Each structure stands twice: as structure tokens, then as C-alpha cells.
């Protein structure tokens, strides 16, 4: 553990980087497609449906300099070096490419890595593609595969499911911060889940849309306990699908797009693999936090907070000049693998002080019309967690919002029809009016790796 | 480029899906952590201690993450308190079978234990306790799955805890 947080370090990008296009598949437990075919579907949407100023696929490919691929677990696809197969299938040889792996944060790390490819001057146009094939095995076996991302010798065998590892944190968090508020405390967790299933109803890509009441989330008949205190509807989906993001240097971005969105901050953080190994330390402060705010904190981060998320936010906010995330950002996509991890992240990201994360959801700040609408995409609970694609898809959802294009990809009946779905009659437009700045947070393990990416429309 | 709205094609159930069985055995070495699992088999609980940083680790770390020096093996208390707990109803594949080898069953109470004198917390199981009775701060004592109880298996399931009076 390193103290001091490099206060003298001023992280920066050597030249500006822009996001210009995104594409996704729909997400479901089972597609009858291979991983390379899923990526092809997402890349077609990215290149053909984002109003890019290129004549055809061939012209686009001629401009491309590098590709970054993102897949969480070779176990799922049962194919090592799958990136080579995808790259080959897209016809991108002999371009250089890499595959990035940081657990649940793999997608975010892939975007961060691609940003650096451009900022360094190596590349002007980079493709970021992520996917996960979670449909070759049963959900139960899938959970065991995911649990292999816990400490093999000391924790994997204890439950073989990540819901357990988060339930341990949820119990402690509830004891410290929710219990005193009685049932209302538990309701804050349920509201996170209900909100995200609800917003997923307006995404043609979503796997688990639903209009649930707060009571439904903890109703054993509708939403059985997986690992007490976490119920099924509070857990992310197990998804198959792909996401593709296209990043460009400034000249290239304005050549290809009329609405490029700058990636003006990136940050990454880490913490111990095992939650129980986290020894007490001082809370690194965000710009809007008073130095005395956490004076009485004796056991931070403990089981209730993520040092990696806080550190990633410190770095990304510093780079982007964010003073107060709640007011500076117009929307955020956080990694709601579980209802509890959303509440924890609200505090790590500075939307509310530690211990007060529930206020962010209870106050309606997290909803459309609130100060900082969060996971309008439906999040991981409502829409998808095809792990390697997740962090990329989050950035794409923020990109479309900042471009004012949310409707193009969500409110067009033809998109719904593409996936055999009908656009809901009671449709709610989730475009944040005049959104200018957004945040996307990708998260692994019980907080072993986290990335924070900030976007700004010029 | 313009958008091409291709007609919807539902997941094609006629696409072939081949069943590929997997059964492999890994010869996994515990490396320098081996003394911990040997001790469990003898009913002992040990951790590692860094004399320079004055930190005691359980799970043990044979190398100190702070100073990168070699740590010493030390006995640690078999008494602790529950730092937090969860009750697993729906585990991943293989857990129920694994539990059965040590005579335990679902739902399973998983705990993090704070042990006196240890700077980290260890994840383990709580047995001989109704899930309704467990609470944060509950005093517990270590037990071991030895010969005759289906163990030792030389894995994390060899250790479990039971409630004791204050």
C-alpha cells in the first residue's frame, strides 16, 4: 500500500483524444452467434450508423492505425487469443493490436489504453472492441468461472459466486450506514435496482428490463435470495454481446465527425484482491471535500468503500479539472454489478460523502431530471454485463448522450425491430437535455481495479 | 455512411451447438503458503508476521507487501469476532458438492473474521449456528475439518468457526 497519492503528480494527456462513434449488439443470455460475428455486428453499427464522414468500410479501414480488444475470461469463450480471431475476421491485419484484461474493469481499461495510444501520438484512429460469450455454460457454472476472479487459495471455494463477496460488503455497509434508518435504509438499495430495471425498459439492447416496485426487489417469490442480503433482481445480468468504440485524434475526429466528444480525463486505481486484506488508511480527498470531513473515520475503506474507485476519481477529476462531480457532470454511468456496489460507488465518486450514498438515490438526484442522472442505460443490473464489453458500452452510452443522439439508438422502432422487440408504447425519452459532461466508471473484483473516464462535448 | 436496417433474424436455433466436456486436474502448488494448509490439517492456525513493519497477515503472506522482506510464521489466536457475514443460498457450480465433503450444507454462512492481534481479516465458514442468530461482532472460535470429518482436504474449507459465549 502506497501512501501520499502522488500529490505532485499532474496526470495529463499529451494531446487531445476524442470519441466519435459507438456500436453494440443487443445483450441476452444466449445468442446463436460466435464472438467474432457479434463484434462484426457492433462494428457495423459503429462505422455505419454514427454519421461518420467516410464513404465506405474500405476507406474507414485505411484510416485505422490500431485496435484494442477486451475480453474478461478466456474460460467463457473457451478460446485463447480470441483477439487474433476477431481482428482477422474484421480484416484488420497487419495493424497492431492488444487484448486488455482487468476483470470486470476490462472494458474501461481497454478504453483507457486506447486513449493513451492516441494521446501518445502513435495512432490517429483506434478501434476498441469488447465482448463476452457467457452462453456456452449454465448460469451456475458461469458464476463459478467468474469466482475464479477471486483469490484461488483463500476465497474462491467459499461460495464460488461473486454475489457472496458483495453480500459480505452489503451486510457491513447496512450495519454502518443503513440500519439506523430502518426499512428506509434497505429501500435505498432496492431503489437502485428498481431504477435500473426501469431505465432498461427504454433500451432496445437490454436483457433485464422491468417495472418493479421497491417491495418486488426483496420479494422472495419474484426475486429470491442469492446470497443474503442480496436478492436476484439486485444482481447484474450474465450476458452475451459486444461493444465497439472508435477514438480519434483531434484532426481525425473533426474530419470524420460533426460532433466529436473529448475524453478529457482518465484515471485508474487498484486495491487488494481480497477485501479482508484492506487495512485502515486516510481517505484521499476530492476537490469539493472539506479536509475535516472524514476526521472520525477509523476503518476506511474497510468493507464499505473502494479505494480503487476513489483513487481513479482523484486522478481523472484532476486531469479533467472537475471541481464537484455532482454539479460538473450532466450524467454518469457507474458499475452497478450489485445494488450495494452502486451505493458504495456514489460515495467513492464524491456524489455524496461517505455514509450518505443513499441520499443520492433517495433524493432523486440519480434519476432523469435530477442533478446527476445515473445509469440511464439501465446499467449492469437492467441492461447487460457481457463483461469485456461493459466498460466500452458505458462510454458509448455517455457518448451518445453528449452527442444528443440517445434517441437515434434507443427511440427508433427500427432498432427495436432489429432485435425482435417492440418499442414500448409508454416510451420515456431519456436524453439528458443539453448534456455536456459525463462520467463512466468500470470496476473489477471487489474493487481490485477501477477506471474512471470523463467525457466533454466541446 | 448511411444506416442499413437489416431485417431481424432471431437467434437461429438451427445453428449447431456442440457439447464439449471439460474435466482436467491441475497440480496446483501452494508454494511458500504451504505451511498454512499443513497447519490446518494439524488443527493449528498460523499466519505470517513482518518484524520490521509489525504487521500480522492472515491469509498469510510469505513476503511482506510493504518492505518486501521475508515474514515469519507465527501462531495466531483461535478466537475472533465476525466482521461481516453473508448467507449463500445459490452458490456457483461445485460449491454444494465441495461442502458435502466436509459434512456441511446449504444455506452456508460465510464470514469474515477479525482475529485478535491480526491486521487483516480472513474469509471462512460459520457452522453450528442458525442463520437467524448470526450477527456482526459475534465471538467465534476456530475449528478444523480433521481426519474423520471428511478432511483434511488441504484447502480453505478445512477451517471453519463456531459461536462461543462472550
Please explain how this structure is put together.
Chain A is built from 18 helices and 11 strands. The two termini of chain A are 38 Å apart. By secondary structure, chain A is an alpha/beta fold. Chain B is mainly beta and 166 residues long. Chain B contains 2 helices and 8 strands, in the order αββββαββββ. Chain B has a 5-stranded mixed β-barrel. A 3-stranded antiparallel β-sheet of chain B has the order 2-1-3, covered by helices on one side. Chain B is extended and about 65 Å long. Chains A and B meet through α1, α6, α7, β5 and α18 of A and β4, β5 and β6 of B.
Q: Total helix count of chain A?
A: 18
- SSE order of chain B: HEEEEHEEEE
Biggest interface pair, counts: A-B, 61 and 52 residues
Low-confidence stretches of chain B: none
Summed up, the helix count of chain B is 2
Order of helices and strands of chain A: EHHEHHEHEHHHHEEEHEHHEHHHHHHEE
Amino acid at each position: 500500500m502506497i501512501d501520499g497519492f502522488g500529490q505532485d503528480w499532474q496526470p495529463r494527456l499529451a494531446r487531445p483524444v476524442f470519441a466519435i462513434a459507438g456500436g453494440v449488439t443487443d445483450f441476452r443470455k444466449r445468442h446463436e452467434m460466435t464472438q467474432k460475428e457479434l463484434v462484426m455486428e457492433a462494428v457495423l453499427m459503429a462505422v455505419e450508423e454514427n454519421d461518420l464522414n467516410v464513404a465506405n468500410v474500405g476507406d474507414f479501414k485505411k484510416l485505422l492505425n490500431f485496435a484494442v480488444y477486451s475480453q474478461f475470461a478466456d474460460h467463457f469463450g473457451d478460446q485463447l487469443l480470441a483477439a487474433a480471431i476477431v481482428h482477422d475476421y474484421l480484416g484488420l491485419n497487419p495493424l497492431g493490436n492488444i487484448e486488455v484484461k482487468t476483470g470486470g474493469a476490462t472494458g474501461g481499461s481497454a478504453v483507457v489504453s486506447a486513449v493513451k495510444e492516441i494521446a501518445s501520438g502513435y495512432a490517429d484512429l483506434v478501434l476498441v472492441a469488447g465482448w463476452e460469450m457467457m452462453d456456452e455454460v449454465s448460469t451456475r457454472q458461469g458464476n463459478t468461472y467468474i469466482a475464479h476472479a477471486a483469490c484461488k487459495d483463500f476465497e474462491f471455494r467459499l461460495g464460488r459466486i461473486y454475489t457472496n463477496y458483495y453480500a459480505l460488503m452489503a451486510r457491513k455497509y447496512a450495519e454502518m450506514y443503513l440500519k439506523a434508518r430502518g426499512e428506509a435504509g434497505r429501500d435505498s438499495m432496492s431503489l437502485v435496482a428498481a431504477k435500473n430495471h426501469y431505465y432498461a425498459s427504454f433500451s432496445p439492447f437490454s436483457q433485464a428490463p422491468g417495472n418493479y416496485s421497491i417491495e418486488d426487489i426483496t420479494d422472495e417469490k419474484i426475486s429470491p435470495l442469492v446470497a443474503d442480503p442480496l436478492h436476484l433482481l439486485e444482481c447484474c445480468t450474465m450476458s452475451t454481446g459486444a461493444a465497439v468504440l472508435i477514438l480519434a485524434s483531434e484532426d481525425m475526429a473533426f474530419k470524420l465527425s460533426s460532433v466529436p466528444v473529448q475524453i478529457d480525463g482518465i484515471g485508474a486505481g487498484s486495491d487488494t484482491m481480497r477485501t479482508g486484506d484492506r487495512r485502515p488508511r486516510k481517505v484521499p480527498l476530492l476537490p469539493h471535500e472539506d479536509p475535516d470531513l472524514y476526521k472520525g473515520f477509523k476503518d476506511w475503506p474497510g468493507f464499505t468503500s473502494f479505494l480503487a474507485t476513489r483513487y481513479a476519481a482523484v486522478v481523472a477529476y484532476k486531469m479533467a479539472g472537475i471541481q464537484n462531480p455532482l454539479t460538473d457532470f450532466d450524467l454518469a454511468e457507474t458499475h452497478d454489478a450489485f445494488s450495494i456496489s452502486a451505493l458504495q460507488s456514489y460515495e467513492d465518486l464524491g456524489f455524496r460523502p461517505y455514509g450518505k450514498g443513499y441520499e443520492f438515490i433517495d433524493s432523486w438526484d440519480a434519476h432523469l431530471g435530477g442533478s446527476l442522472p445515473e445509469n440511464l442505460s439501465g446499467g449492469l443490473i437492467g441492461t447487460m454485463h457481457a463483461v469485456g464489453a461493459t466498460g466500452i458500452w458505458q462510454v458509448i452510452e455517455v457518448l451518445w448522450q453528449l452527442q444528443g443522439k440517445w434517441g437515434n439508438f434507443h427511440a427508433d422502432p427500427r432498432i427495436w425491430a432489429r432485435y425482435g422487440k417492440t418499442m414500448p408504447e409508454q416510451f420515456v425519452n431519456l436524453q439528458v437535455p443539453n448534456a455536456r459532461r459525463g462520467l463512466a466508471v468500470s470496476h473489477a473484483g471487489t474493487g481490485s481495479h477501477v477506471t474512471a473516464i470523463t467525457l466533454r462535448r466541446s | 455512411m448511411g444506416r442499413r436496417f437489416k431485417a431481424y433474424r432471431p437467434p437461429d436455433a438451427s445453428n449447431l451447438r456442440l457439447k464439449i466436456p471439460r474435466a482436467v486436474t491441475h497440480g496446483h502448488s501452494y508454494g511458500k503458503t504451504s505451511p498454512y494448509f499443513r497447519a490446518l490439517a494439524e488443527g493449528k492456525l498460523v499466519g505470517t508476521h513482518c518484524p520490521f513493519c509489525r504487521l500480522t497477515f492472515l491469509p498469510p503472506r510469505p513476503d511482506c507487501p510493504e518492505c518486501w522482506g521475508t515474514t515469519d510464521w507465527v501462531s495466531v489466536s483461535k478466537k475472533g469476532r465476525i466482521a461481516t457475514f453473508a448467507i449463500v443460498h445459490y452458490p456457483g457450480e461445485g460449491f454444494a458438492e465441495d461442502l458435502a465433503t466436509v459434512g456441511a450444507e446449504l444455506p452456508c454462512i460465510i464470514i469474515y473474521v477479525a482475529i485478535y492481534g491480526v491486521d487483516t481479516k480472513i474469509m471462512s465458514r460459520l457452522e453450528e449456528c442458525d442463520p437467524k442468530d448470526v450477527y456482526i461482532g459475534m465471538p467465534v472460535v476456530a475449528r478444523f475439518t480433521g481426519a474423520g470429518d471428511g478432511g483434511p482436504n488441504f484447502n480453505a474449507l478445512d477451517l471453519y468457526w463456531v459461536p462461543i459465549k462472550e
